[in-house]
Amino acid sequence: PQKVITIKKGTAGNLVYAANWEQKPQYPITYHLNGGIVTTNPVSYHEDTETFTLNNPTRSGYTFVGWSGSNGSIPQTTVTIPTGSTGERDYVANWVIITYDITYNLDGGTANGNPISYTVETEDFTLNNPTRSGYTFTGWTGSNGTAAQETVTVKKGTTGSLSYTANWTPVEPD
Question: Nearest-CA neighbor of 150 among 171, 172, 133, 131?
């Protein structure tokens, strides 16, 4: 195939030419999501692909702090691949675990040893029940619902801030 065709003066007759095209190479993009999920990020591109920005992943219980890899070692939350770029790309999702608060309304009671925070990776734990002079503890309400429960266990994998209220009934005098 020739890139330039010259038709000489005086040429007669019908001429037929066929265009020959060569596909530009596709470059793969690899993602290491480290437990996260992302939708609609391209898995390849070529140098004529329009400029695009990577969609950021999500992960329950974590904050995404950026992509590292082909864009450098410092995580960036906005990574754009401009038209004209070439070469394979490799990106790693970087995360920071979220610490959630736990608040208690003991309504005059005391409880020792209950955690005031947790993460999605904290092992299961059961709340210690409070005590209050002259009252019987009837259960916790709040993040566990409106029906008082004497045993409340927070399971590993739970997310979000939690709040619990101690419920009491007065002890009947003898």
Answer: 131
- pLDDT, tens digit, 9 for 90 and up, residues 96-149: 999 999 999 999 999 889 999 999 999 999 999 999 999 999 999 999 999 999
CA–CA separation, 142 and 152 (whole Å): 11
This prediction's pTM? 0.80
| Rounded Cα–Cα distance for residues 131 and 141 (Å) | 16
Report how far residue 120's alpha carbon sits from residue 38's, in angstroms, rounded to the nearest whole number: 20
Contact yes or no for 152/144 (Cβ under 8 A): yes
Q: Give CA–CA dist 30/124, Å, rounded.
A: 35
SS3 83: coil
